[in-house]
Design brief:
The protein is mainly alpha-helical. Helices cover 48% and strands 0% of the residues.
């Protein structure tokens, strides 16, 4: 499993493709709901190059017509994710406890 800055990106892409939507179309639908997101930012989300705040999960689930839980992979290897997420080798908007 590729571990990036989020675990929902591939799921967003999967549901978007199932609907036959482009990233531009999904971005437009999200914008109509009140989230100002560009197709480029959506592409980074799907590629796991940016974090996904919880409020964005609500927008994604609503527009894609799914539950928030469906945005998460069915098998999430927490023992693999934890150490990588907590390592100093990741991009972080806010410092973790040990990064200060």
């Amino acid at each position: 499993m590729k571990l990036g800055l989020n675990v929902v990106g591939p799921q967003v892409q999967k549901f978007r493709v199932r609907k036959g939507w482009t990233q531009s179309l999904l971005a437009q639908k999200l914008q109509l709901q009140g989230w100002s997101i560009s197709p480029g930012s959506l592409g980074k989300l799907e590629a796991q190059l940016r974090r996904v705040p919880d409020c964005e999960l609500m927008f994604l689930a609503k527009v894609l017509g799914i539950s928030i839980s469906e945005l998460f992979p069915k098998i999430t290897p927490l023992r693999q994710i934890g150490p990588q997420f907590q390592s100093g080798n990741r991009l972080a908007v806010f410092p973790a406890r040990g990064d200060r």
